[in-house]
């Protein structure tokens, strides 16, 4: 089969069994290429996942409902990656990185997860928004020869020259696509480089299927991911994309621009380590695309909180209903106020007996009280900041007209004056891009 114009094997994506689809594809690659040893690792990982699902069906410690959800999660991750694999089929580095990512996914079978946790894990292991550009036919500029752009991109990938702007290709491939290829795979390559799943992928290459399965149960995925999430910001930033749209051809400028401004300033106000940029806009229906650059772990959590509370508050105001999260924030604020006011008596009482025995100086207690009071005061200020920033986001959404739509990382979160609750904020966050920090940017 010719490599010149074919970037996928026709018909494979029509297969009913995704495991058969991968196996057929891998075997075809190995037959076509004299050196396709990097596919051996992927084949072993795919077969190990297949066996995990077979064993899961007989596992008595999981409910039938949970087994169905875990089965669906596995199929979703594999199906979402397959078109990306066909695109990068000539890149051994990509195949190794994908194999390592799917090896990490196999660890989910060793623990029990809630529905929301499972959804977040699916998003964590699935392709990020970075791949949307290269898989979207909108970038094909030569409609008389629609394979030209994709074929040229495949040739770049095949020769590992994704960083080169070849003059002969500039008239075919928009520069924004070529530039995007620079960072598209950064997220899964970063996992390989940082041993995200507790082991170097090179140590796994000689493992057979059963050895891979045993290895995947040695360390808990929950602990590994939590540790890795902190490492992300040593050299990279999380980047969200937010698209704001109105179907009005000539929307009220104050309303639409006010919506953009309030949402942007609310998100940026959530942390000093967050930056908001406008990266694109367009006509037809009026729309603007924002890029949210998140530079450390705490800022990431703050942005999620602000956006989630802001969307829910806007939805509740349309319905003229109270919002549970706002009430929770208010109760947390009241609790901290009470704790702050009651703190001296509580600490002094608790320390009295110890003071009698150890004859400690009163000044030591006062220092402890002062430190604890400052800590609680800072928590109170942080809650107030999150609440204010959330209100700005909510205000921005409310400034939009009845057709206003908010899309985050290609998922609609607010439309038709109500929150679309099918996707959690953690799922949205895990779909985000991971991009290298600028050379002059301080490391978090």
The count of strands amounts to 7
What is the H-and-E element order?
A: HHHHHHHHHHHEHEEHHHEEEHE
**Domains (count):** 2
- Based on CA atoms alone, the radius of gyration comes out at 26 Å
Please tell me the overall pLDDT.
78
Distance between the termini: 48 Å
Helical residue percent?
A: 55-70%
Q: Give the count of helical stretches.
A: 16
Shape: globular
Protein described:
With 444 residues, this protein is α+β, with helices and mostly antiparallel strands. The chain has two domains: 12-130 and 185-233, no CATH class; 235-444, no CATH class. Helix content is 57%, strand content 10%. The protein contains 16 helices and seven strands. The protein has helices spanning 18-32, 38-57, 64-87, 92-105, 115-125, 131-135, 148-158, 175-183, 186-193, 209-216, 221-231, 253-268, 297-318, 324-358, 362-399, 425-430, and strands at 236-246, 274-282, 286-294, 405-408, 411-415, 418-419, 433-436. Strands 1, 2, 3, 4, 5, 6 and 7 form a seven-stranded antiparallel sheet that branches. A hairpin with a 3-residue loop joins β2 and β3. α2 runs antiparallel to α3 (64-87) and α13 (297-318) packs across α15.
Topology:
Layout: H1 18-32, H2 38-57, H3 64-87, H4 92-105, H5 115-125, H6 131-135, H7 148-158, H8 175-183, H9 186-193, H10 209-216, H11 221-231, E1 236-246, H12 253-268, E2 274-282, E3 286-294, H13 297-318, H14 324-358, H15 362-399, E4 405-408, E5 411-415, E6 418-419, H16 425-430, E7 433-436
Antiparallel strand pairs: 1-3, 1-4, 1-7, 2-3, 4-5, 5-6
């Amino acid at each position: 089969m010719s490599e010149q114009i074919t970037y996928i094997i026709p018909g494979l994506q029509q297969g009913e069994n995704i495991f058969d689809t991968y196996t057929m594809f891998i075997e075809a690659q190995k037959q076509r290429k004299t050196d396709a040893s990097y596919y051996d690792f992927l084949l072993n990982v795919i077969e190990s996942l297949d066996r995990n699902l077979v064993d899961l069906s007989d596992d008595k410690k999981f409910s039938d409902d949970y087994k169905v959800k875990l089965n669906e999660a596995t199929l979703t991750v594999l199906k979402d990656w397959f078109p990306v694999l066909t695109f990068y089929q000539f890149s051994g580095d990509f195949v190794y990185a994908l194999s390592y990512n799917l090896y990490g996914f196999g660890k989910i079978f060793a623990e029990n997860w809630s529905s929301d946790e499972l959804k977040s894990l699916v998003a964590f292991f699935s392709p990020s928004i970075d791949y949307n550009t290269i898989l979207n036919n909108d970038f094909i500029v030569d409609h008389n020869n629609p394979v030209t752009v994709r074929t040229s991109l495949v040739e770049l990938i095949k020769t590992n020259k994704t960083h080169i702007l070849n003059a002969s290709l500039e008239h075919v491939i928009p520069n924004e696509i070529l530039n995007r290829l620079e960072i598209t795979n950064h997220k899964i390559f970063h996992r390989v480089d940082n041993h995200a799943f507790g082991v170097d992928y090179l140590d796994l290459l000689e493992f057979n299927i059963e050895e891979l399965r045993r290895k995947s149960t040695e360390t808990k995925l929950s602990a590994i991911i939590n540790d890795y999430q902190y490492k992300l910001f040593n050299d990279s930033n999380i980047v969200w994309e937010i698209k704001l749209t109105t179907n009005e051809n000539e929307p009220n400028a104050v309303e639409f621009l006010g919506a953009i401004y309030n949402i942007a300033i609310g998100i940026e106000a959530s942390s000093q380590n967050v930056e908001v940029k406008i990266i694109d806009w367009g006509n037809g229906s009026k729309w603007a695309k924002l890029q949210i650059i998140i530079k450390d772990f705490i800022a990431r959590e703050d942005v999620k909180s602000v956006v989630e509370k802001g969307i829910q508050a806007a939805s509740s105001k349309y319905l003229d209903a109270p919002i549970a999260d706002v009430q929770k924030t208010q109760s947390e604020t009241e609790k901290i106020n009470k704790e702050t006011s009651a703190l001296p008596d509580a600490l002094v009482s608790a320390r009295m007996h110890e003071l009698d025995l150890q004859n400690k100086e009163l000044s030591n207690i006062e220092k402890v009280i002062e430190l604890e009071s400052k800590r609680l005061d800072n928590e109170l200020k942080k809650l107030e900041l999150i609440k204010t920033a959330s209100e700005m986001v909510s205000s921005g959404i409310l400034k939009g007209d009845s057709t206003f739509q908010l899309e985050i990382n290609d998922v609609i979160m607010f439309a038709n004056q109500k929150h679309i609750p099918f996707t959690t904020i953690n799922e949205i966050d895990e779909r985000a891009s991971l991009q290298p920090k600028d050379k002059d940017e301080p490391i978090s």
